[in-house]
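MOLECULE: protein
FOLLOWS: sequence and fold
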Amino acid sequence: MQERIAVIERLERGSPLNNAPFLLCLTGPLDASLLTAALHHIVQRHDALRLRIVDEPGRGFGMVLHTEAGPCLEHVDLSGLAMGDGEAHCRAAAEAEAKRPFDIECDPLMRAVLYRLSGDRHFLFLNWHHIIIDGRSINIILREMAQVYAALRAGAEPVLPPPPHRFREFSGRRCKRADDGADQRRAWWRQHLTVTPHSFDLPSDRPAAAARSYRGAAVDLVLPGALVDGLRRVGQRHGTSLFAVLLAGYALVAARWRGDGDAVIGVVASGRTSDDMADLVGVFLNLLPLRVDVAAQASLGQLLDAVAEHLRAGVRHQDMPLEDILGAAAGGRGAAVPQMAINYRSYDISAFTALGLTASIRRLQTDTALFPLGLVAEKWGDELHVYLEYSTEMFDAATIERL
């Protein structure tokens, strides 16, 4: 996935398309100097957070490691403003930072700002470029940063087990390991995607331009905890996950919208296919184009069973770059990138609540859309925040809201 991100970055220089912003509201006693030291410790610990990207003619891109972490956390004091004004100023500043693009060959690929509204109220803004980080990595960083902060606050030396690998080294070894069993994986994807390229098409208000600008917007809704629990129980009755339930619903809507009972949806997979990747910060994502033949299923239960089986099989065969998957499709003739995608993320901020802080997440928009239509589901505590991101070049807001 890094190679694909690098290609898109070259095409979209000056765009925040690949930004991964995160805003955390922290209420309670917080020592800003200790939080700064904790973040510096984490940046020094994980080499992915100190990488720069360089263009290597004939080879695409390379990664250069900075041995020492520079200044990590900027401090902005807004305590002189009234509480409402301070929070509004913080939100506006964070939104602007979220949309500020990275120069991946010159800039540090992580930015962090701590906004102080009062002695017991802070906002922690973090932003990374996706070429070095994925959603699982954000949870690792938050958990370890809280652990280091707790140790420093207790006057102890932080003790964390060393990372199992260095991301830059592991990335190269993983490519070699992926060659094992490649023929079997290629055969499975060829059989799974027995569709012609037009089967990826999506009805739109306007045709896609030859060169997309990736400008986008989103409509969102919040599913309360009771509804999320109900959807999870539906999945459990069919021996599958909440994510599979969401994917089945998304496929059903897509097939009815397309009018032919078929859908190919790009599923964002973690790409973490071995235990030694569990606590490694970096980007391992892959996009799996899963075909769902909605018309072939006689009931919603059968649809969910079919989606769950496709999802399990796709994950088993995920250790293959998207370009190779698409190249194997359609009898070797190749296929287009899916126009629809789905991504599920679960953020764990419990390590901060264990510090005696009340922590909550704030959503930040970058006004971009990587896919013409993308469903993003984020688990925040008991609630599920769902965003339908769309290309404003192809769709009107009213069309997306009707979906």
